[in-house]
Amino acid sequence: MGRKQDLVDTALRLFYEHGIHAIGINQVLQEAGVAKQTLYNHFESKDSLVEAAVEHRDNLIFSWLETRMNSRPAGEEALLEMFDAVHDWFNNREPALPRFCGCFFINACGEYSDPEHPVHKRCAVHKARVFELLKMHAEKVCCSQAEAEQLANALFLLKEGAIVKAHVEGDLDAALKAKAIASGMILPH
């Protein structure tokens, strides 16, 4: 699995830093130090390599976020920890993650805008996983499923907005601003 993982890691880094369509297969091969035949032994096309990179990023980000949130008591504290985790990511204080270049999934969907494309679908799976994580913790502070879903939606949108604000406007405190809003939403429950 070594060469295959090298390809995925290199592709993910390059795609995240520069954009998927801006990076050619030859650049990935050169930086990974593998031959073209090695690529095609593992992936049938660039898109299948992109899918593998998206899946790898999904697992990396989800595992990191889940670990950070689960480091706090379930419910309110875990939900607020999400914003602290994202703040650390924006400010490049998270050793498990590369330098912040926006949301890889949002960026990838910008390049693969067809919702039926496998890359787009894989990005949507990541967002759904994060939403479910939020909803699980929201259920600890809300009286009903409907309230938990509403709170999870609001917090998810705050997080997504903070990511865009940090990336597009360079507001590296966007997650803390979102956390302040989230605190007011969580506490009344």
UniProtKB/TrEMBL annotation:
Residues 1-61 form the HTH tetR-type domain. Keywords: DNA-binding, Transcription, Transcription regulation. Pfam families: TetR_C_13 (PF16925), TetR_N (PF00440). The keyword Transcription regulation applies. The keyword Transferase does not apply. Residues 24-43 bind DNA. Gene3D superfamilies: Tetracycline Repressor, domain 2 (1.10.357.10). GO terms for molecular function: DNA binding. InterPro entries: Homeodomain-like_sf (IPR009057), HTH_TetR (IPR001647), Tet_transcr_reg_TetR-rel_C_sf (IPR036271), TetR_C (IPR011075). PANTHER family: HTH-TYPE TRANSCRIPTIONAL REGULATOR YJDC (PTHR47506:SF1), TRANSCRIPTIONAL REGULATORY PROTEIN (PTHR47506). This is Transcriptional regulator, TetR family. It comes from Marinobacter mobilis. The lineage of its organism: Bacteria, Pseudomonadati, Pseudomonadota, Gammaproteobacteria, Pseudomonadales.
